[in-house]
Amino acid sequence: MLEDERSKIGRRVLFLAIPVLLENLFQLVFSFVDMIFVGFLGATALAAVGLGMQVINVVLAVVSALTVGTMVTIAYSIGAGNYEDAVKYLENSMILGFYLSILILLFGLFGSDRLLQILGAKEDIRISASLYLKYILVPGFLIVYMSIISSALRGAGDTKTPLYASIISNTSNIFLDYILVFGKFGFPKMGVAGAALATSLSRLLGTIFLLYIIYKRSNLLKYKFFYNFIPERSYSLQILRIGVPTSFEQLFFNIGALVYATVVLSLGTKVYAAHRIALNVESLSFQPGFAFGVAATTLVGQYKGAKEDNLARLASVEAWKRAIIFMGSVGVFLFLFPEYLVQIFTRDVEVVKYASSVLRIIAVIQPLLATANVMSGSLRGAGFSKIPMVISGVGMWFVRIPLAYFLAIKMNLGLVGAWIAMSTDISLKAIANYYMFIVKGYYKKESFKVKYEEVISN
Fold it and tell me: Where in the cell (predicted)?
């Protein structure tokens, strides 16, 4: 009987994870296409877009307070059979998203350039990165609503619709990148700004598609548009109680990544360009871990909502096993043939050499990266998002950053030293998250507060 249940859950894991994996691969096309086209503009433009993406990651960390909170609360509600609550959580997340979009717009207009100055970006890189960020962040509502709706659908067990939205967005992004970056078909040559505008326009198409789905087509989330701009306290608190720790986790991580990036920036423009390219290539192996992490979050949340704690643990383990298989396979390819992937982005011999050397380092720890992703996702699905927040924050600020400075600068190991520090951080996070969810048995503990009074008292 247990074997039948394991097989059934294994199929559910794949059913949820494969569309997310494909969606993430299409999302990679977003960054890959931007980097490939911008790469033709030179190392400065490449570094500017890379730095801009680092800042956008910080914005996405703030948005995750809503996306993760929405996904977990909806998954729990669906598991408990409370479909009306699931719709309420979506409605309130959309209202909160409206106010967050305004803050992102204001940051894009008045704060992004100042942040780049604080980070110590050279003037030529700063000017291009600032322009790139304005085209992305001023229409920040596209990032917010595309993320919220996709997460809501995943929490309800629908990972295919966000995949379709990603296909629409990325297909249009390729075409728009070509005409706006290089000035084709009568359009002006916009360079770095063109890459950013193409991304925003393609996100607009994806957002329109998702809004149509939840308004007309979704079976579980019958969302209706309304003009209420005041969120309901009980539902909003529940979303934020689950999501805010994840937001802080990603903020700690991404702000730390910016500090970490300054260490790499100090090694020179070409080294930083190699670092960004290596991160893009490495994300090929990261995507299965993220996809199975989402599957673990959804299933753990649904099983916890149904009061099936042992099945929640089983879902986590099955997702973990499959993530290791997928990521280990990609890791072998990364270790053996990194140069071929790096050369997609640049033919600069020095940049290729730097990027290839560090990709072999990250290839070795792919099973640990899989563990970190799935187990942190499992903890969030169970409602314990504060635990991965603490683990991630400690790892970034007390392991990765100081160790990178020591190895890269003091020990003169350069980019290799910085990536050894990153690999050490990932390995320790994997061990800590696994220990908390599986060994300490957090899959059996109750965190999700259903009633309004419980939310307030918590």
Answer: Cell membrane
Return d(Cα 16, Cα 12) in angstroms, integer.
6
**What amino acid occupies position 62?**
V
| Alpha-carbon distances, residue 254 vs 31, 59, 100, 172, 246 (angstroms) | 17, 9, 18, 28, 12
- The H or E element that residue 421 is part of is helix 414-434
Identity at 390, one-letter amino acid code: V
The tokens of 271 are what?
């080294």
Cβ proximity of 369 and 285 under 8 Å? yes
- Predicted confidence (pLDDT) per residue in 95-136, tens digit: 999 999 999 999 999 988 888 888 777 788 888 889 999 999
- Report the SS3 class of residue 143: helix
Place of tokens 């990651």: 57
CA distance 151 to 14: 17
Spatial CA neighbour of 132 closest among 60, 50, 77, 30: 50
User: DSSP letters along 168-228, please?
Assistant: HHHHHHHHHHHHHHHT-TT----THHHHHHHHHHHHHHHHHHHHHIIIII-SS--------
CB 408 within 8 A of CB 415: yes
- Alpha carbon separation from 145 to 73, 168, 278 (Å, rounded): 17, 16, 30
How far apart are alpha carbons 435 and 414 in whole angstroms?
A: 33
Residue pair 43/269 in contact (Cβ under 8 Å)? The answer is yes
Rounded CA-CA distance 243/66 in Å is 6
* Distance of alpha carbon 332 from alpha carbon 311, whole angstroms: 32
Three-class SS state of 343 = coil
50 alpha carbon, distance to own chain's centre: 16
Which pLDDT score is estimated for 450? 46
Contact call for residues 278 and 358 (beta carbons, < 8 A)? yes
- Which residue in this structure is represented by tokens 């643990």? 313
Q: Give the phi and the psi of residue 121 in degrees, each rounded to 5.
A: -65, 140
Do 37 and 195 meet the contact criterion of CB atoms below 8 Å apart?
yes
What was the pLDDT predicted at 57? 82
320 within 8 A of 291, measured Cβ to Cβ: no
Token output for 254? 């991404």
Which amino acid does the sequence have at 353?
A: K
Burial environment of residue 193 by CB neighbours within 10 A (0 to 12, 13 to 18, 19 or more): middle
As to burial, measured by CB atoms within 10 angstroms (0-12 exposed, 13-18 middle, 19+ buried), residue 372 is: buried
Below-50 pLDDT ranges, the chain: 450-458
